Amino acid sequence: MAKHFGGILIHNIILPVIVSLLLTINSTVWGGETSTNKEIRVFIEQQILVALENGEEVYSFDIVTGRDGKETTAGRYRVFRKHEKYTSKTYGSEMPYTMFFTEDGKAIHGTQMATLRSYLHSYLTDSVGSQGCVGLMDDNAKALFEWAPIGTPVVVMTEEE
Asked: Is the Cβ–Cβ distance between 105 and 45 less than 8 Å?
């Protein structure tokens, strides 16, 4: 169970700060991979993911996000782990080109029929959504995986800002 501190969940505030600091230390001290000019934006309402570099759009992909009860949580995150091939330990499903951005296992990854599911999720029913991850077509997931290094900011929004 999450601990509360002044009404704010510690894992939503403290953990991202710690991860960000560790990524900065990794980048500056050990020469690790990080990104300051790249950003991934996830628009839940529109079911679109936009990749930006130096403020310019590089990619825009249809996505499928969490269904009712398994929502993709809005917030600011960073890619902290990547796997070209990954199988979900919880659901047993293949997740190609996985980029984890939350400690509870939410990730951006390839999935089956993402474009169709995105349309259905946006316009007809939330029941075709994901388990909380951000799913996109495998070829799009591969392009994003190759483009985004560990440390890339991920901003999940419920509506356009």
From this structure: no
37-157: CATH topology: L,D-transpeptidase catalytic domain-like (2.40.440)
Of 102, 82, 76, nearest in space to 32 by CA: 82
Considering all CA atoms of the chain, what is the largest pairwise distance in Å, rounded to the nearest integer?
49
Mean pLDDT of 33-51: 85
Q: What per-residue confidence (pLDDT) applies to 21?
A: 47
Instruction: Answer whether 157's CB lies under 8 Å from 44's CB.
Output: yes
Query: Could you tell me the pLDDT band of residue 67, with boundaries at 50, 70 and 90?
Result: low
Provide the 8-state DSSP code for 150.
T
Tens of pLDDT, residue by residue over 100-109, are: 999 988 899 9
The alpha carbons of the chain give a radius of gyration, in whole angstroms, of 15
The pLDDT score that the predictor gives to residue 97 is 95
Closest by Cα among 114, 112, 91, 108 to 150 = 108
Residue 161: burial class (beta carbons within 10 Å; 0-12, 13-18, 19+): exposed
Tokens 């996830």 correspond to what residue? 42
Residue ranges of domains in the chain: 37-157
Q: What is the pTM of this model?
A: 0.68
